[in-house]
Design goal:
Length: about 525
């Protein structure tokens, strides 16, 4: 009996030991699996695969995004002093796609930032900084990058980027926009990683928010995706970018990432979708569709903006690698849509699609094929607009509610292609299909400049547009009073009294006086009639 008891006791001990060993094995296995997946708690250090990149900058907020190879928490430390990042945003939720909003920021302010996981700093160097936008309507100096058809992973793309950054130098880039076909050939996530994020990650993405528009290649370049992806959001384009759909960056809420608007100070932008279809099957050229109804309402609500710029992928005018006389989307956009923009006085339209650079003069009212274009009928200015002292190159000038639009096709940030036999299009005389390049939009107060920056380091084209210049004013003064006269334009200055500054302060004698200020190129002149009465 004792022997049997001892035998049972030994067997029980062995069973317990076996159970403990089995539990330890399961626990150790779980620890090993978790260590590969948990961001730092058990020792594994996730790697940064993408980013950081900035999205939806506003005067008071900005979104910072990045991707890790394993699940991890996501935090952003930030502050106005690079040596004192005293604010924190983010959370402990473990994910691979990190989307962190920095809130309660000050307008027009530079912030430094660092991205962190559960345990480690994932990325931080001297280029980790961002600047919030100015308040809507505020005048300042703004630089907007324009990249069309850029995601090719070619030397053309790299050279275009290099020359763009060389031109920028130490000038901060306020924001940049994408004109579609951002990742060739089918807009897959893998292509976005290789052709877009890997190219721009150490350059523009971490310092300036990007505001994209989609192209046909972002929709996989197939009809099925165009029919459903705008609504389902299944394509990489919609998964990789955040858009200001609630009006948080200015403009009216669109409630869809397909199209939206935003403000950069006194410039109002509309990003549109020319390829996807909406709920009722309509597209950008269907004037009763959801998108066009929103465009009309947004433009109506933003008549007070100094400048209005619209951009999308398919151009209304091109004889580059695509033909605007024969391709349905381009034809219908020209016939049905652009007259709405012109009616609301949109100043500038930017497109891609053709792998070329093409640019119009200030024009209005041409909605037919190339052969119907008439300079006498459709041009509001015959000037080149280049404002460089060459013959007939004065700026395009719009006064008050005057209409007129310049159309720019800048689709060669990643490649150049063949052209149609009639290249350039009659309405787009400033054109090049031989060299790649990106463009930059520079706005200061009532002056707008666009420059096409070629991949070979040259400025291939440029134009200037101004508003509210060439003014004539009458000023009444009493004897002994002083007055400051300000030129209405931004340029160089030649005052009738010999001064060369934008503003002069004078104390004229009793009587009638005339002061004038001109630019050195003979394009601009303000006249001040001053009547001084005796006390």
């Amino acid at each position: 009996m004792v022997a049997l008891f001892i035998l049972l006791l030994v067997m029980k001990v062995k069973i317990c030991a076996l159970f403990i060993l089995l539990c330890w094995t399961v626990f150790a296995s779980a620890q090993t699996t978790t260590s590969r997946r948990d961001a730092g708690r058990y020792g594994y250090r996730p790697k940064l695969l993408r980013g950081p990149y900035l999205q939806v900058t506003t005067p008071h907020s900005v979104i910072v995004r990045w991707r890790t190879d394993e699940l991890d928490a996501g935090f952003v430390r930030f502050g106005t002093d690079a040596k004192k990042l005293d604010q924190l945003a983010g959370n402990n939720t473990r994910t691979k796609e990190h989307i962190v909003t920095l809130s309660n920021l000050k307008p027009s302010t530079k912030y430094y930032y660092m991205i962190e996981g559960f345990k480690d700093t994932l990325q931080y160097d001297h280029d980790n900084y961002l600047s919030t936008f100015p308040l809507a309507g505020e005048k300042g100096k703004y630089s907007i990058g324009i990249f069309g058809d850029c995601g090719t992973r070619t030397t053309n793309q790299l050279n275009s980027l290099a020359q763009f950054e060389k031109y920028l130098g130490n000038t901060p880039l306020t924001a940049w926009i994408l004109l579609g076909d951002n990742a060739y050939s089918f807009g897959s996530d893998m292509e976005y990683q290789a052709n877009f994020f890997n190219t721009y990650k150490d350059h523009l993405l971490k310092k300036s928010a990007v505001f994209p528009a989609p192209g046909n290649h972002d929709y996989r370049d197939e009809p099925y995706a165009a029919e459903v992806a705008q609504r389902s959001g299944e394509i990489a384009y919609y998964q990789n970018f955040n858009m200001p759909t609630k009006g948080e960056a200015g403009g009216l809420p669109s409630n869809t990432p397909a199209f939206y608007s935003f403000d950069v100070g006194n410039v109002h932008f509309l990003s549109l979708d020319s390829h996807g279809t909406e709920d009722n099957g309509s597209r950008l050229f269907d004037t009763t569709g959801v998108q066009v109804k929103w465009v009309k309402a947004d433009l109506e609500a933003n008549k007070n903006k100094d400048w209005v710029v619209a951009y999308w992928h398919h151009p209304p005018y091109s004889m580059g690698s695509h033909n605007s006389d024969t391709e349905r989307q381009m034809v219908k956009i020209r016939e049905n849509f652009i007259q709405i923009l012109e009616r609301y006085g949109v100043d500038l339209v930017l497109c891609g699609h053709s792998h070329s650079y093409e640019r119009s003069k200030l024009m209005q009212g041409h909605y037919g094929p190339e052969a119907s274009f008439s300079p006498e009928k459709h041009l509001l200015s015959t000037s080149s607009g280049q404002y460089d002292g060459t013959p007939n190159s004065c700026p395009y000038i719009k006064q008050g509610s005057e209409k007129g639009t310049v159309y720019v096709l800048s689709g060669s940030a990643g490649r150049v292609d063949h052209a149609q036999a009639s290249f350039p299009h009659d309405a787009m005389p400033f054109a090049n299909v031989e060299v790649s390049g990106a463009s930059i939009l520079e706005v200061e107060d009532n002056r707008l400049d666009l420059k096409w920056l070629r991949a070979d380091g040259k400025i291939g084209d440029h134009f200037t547009m101004m508003k509210g210049v060439n003014k004539k004013r009458t000023i009444e003064l009493a004897e002994g009073e002083t007055v400051t006269l300000n030129a209405s334009f931004i340029s160089d200055y030649k005052w009738s009294n010999g001064a060369k500054t934008r503003a002069i302060t004078i104390k004229p004698a009793v009587g009638k006086h005339q002061y004038t200020v001109k630019d050195s190129k003979g394009c601009l002149e303000d006249i001040f009639e001053i009547n001084v009465t005796k006390k």
